[in-house]
Write a structure and sequence with these properties.
By secondary structure, the protein is mainly alpha-helical. The protein has helices at about 5-30, 35, 45-65, 75-80, 85-105, 125-150; strands spanning about 115-120, 120-125.
Length: about 160
């Protein structure tokens, strides 16, 4: 049976969230607890803030906005935190959130992709909102990976198979 483009979009969105989570997990696990909450300057967020922010964003947009769960997000608290969770707790929370979101995406009726819903105070088309959540997750994954490289002085081997090509 052929997979519809709509179903493929939902499945791929879930795959990307899991892939990006894996990179975040690897990056964060090379840092100590003090590095997790370090801010390079007052205008920047710590990796801990970004982990809280990603969990809040995915929960609000996918689990609540697409899946219908209550919206309990306190966005400003994600950025105000200067401590508040160990690496283990923050990663477990993000992983659980990603898995819940993937379950929503995998069971979402594809007709809903063309529905408009109020999410974060905006009237949004679900297809566009899901696309934005994946892009947003990717963006912050890059920030976390870059900060982990800067702090650890080590790169990642994700693309070693392409060296010399």
């Amino acid at each position: 049976m052929k997979t519809s483009p709509e179903k493929l979009f939902l499945m791929t969105s879930a795959e990307f969230l899991r892939e990006f989570y894996g990179k975040i997990d690897e990056a964060v696990n090379r840092l100590d607890e003090s590095q997790l909450w370090a801010r390079p300057n007052a205008a920047s967020n710590s990796i801990g803030n970004l982990l809280l922010h990603l969990a809040g964003n995915v929960r609000q947009h996918i689990i609540s906005g697409c899946g219908g769960a209550p919206d309990v997000r306190a966005r400003s608290q994600e950025f105000a935190a200067i401590e508040g969770g160990t690496r283990t707790v923050l990663l477990a929370n993000l992983k659980q959130t990603v898995e819940e979101a993937c379950a929503v995406l995998q069971t979402l009726d594809t007709a809903a992709l063309l529905e408009k819903r109020i999410i974060q105070g905006n009237d949004v088309l679900l297809l566009r909102d899901i696309y934005h959540v994946v892009e947003h997750f990717s963006y912050h994954t890059g920030q976390i990976v870059m900060r982990a490289k800067e702090m650890s002085g080590k790169g990642f081997g994700w693309y070693q198979h392409l060296e010399g090509t």
